[in-house]
Design goal:
Elements: H1 2-18, H2 20-44, H3 46-77, H4 79-107, H5 123-127
Helix pairs in contact: 1-2, 2-3, 3-4
Length: 128
């Protein structure tokens, strides 16, 4: 919820610079994700909601670029060109961000106490 709050406040602050159309497009994402998170939690439990959150964080850059491309290109080149360009850029951006994150994580020192990042779906997490 903290990330959603930061995102909404950031979008509101940028609205005078990017316009209401682009700001409104980005502002819809948190609401959609909240609904999807509740639905996943109901259907598959906490681990389903956690998978959704992880997938969302992993793909947020590509989603943002897709929305930006569609909003910017649609009036100039038409909806089909905008959609195709946005769809082509999603995997490119997501792979680039993943590679960058991997490169940066190798530069981070390991914690001496061994309490680094826990594995996915640990028993403690499953019990939550």
């Amino acid at each position: 919820m903290g990330l959603v709050t930061i995102m909404v406040c950031g979008i509101a602050a940028l609205e005078p610079y990017v316009g209401t159309g682009l700001a409104g497009t980005f502002a819809s994402l948190p609401l959609i994700l909240v609904v999807m998170g509740v639905t996943e939690h109901r259907a598959r439990g906490p681990l389903g909601a956690l998978d959704l959150a992880g997938g969302t964080l992993a793909s947020v850059a590509g989603t943002a670029v897709f929305l930006l491309v569609v909003v910017v290109l649609n009036p100039r080149a038409g909806v089909w060109v905008a959609l195709v360009a946005g769809l082509v850029l999603i995997p490119v951006v997501n792979r680039s961000v993943t590679a960058l994150a991997g490169a940066l994580s190798h530069r981070m020192p390991d914690r001496a106490d061994g309490s680094g990042r826990a594995g996915r779906h640990t028993p403690e997490l499953a019990a939550a």
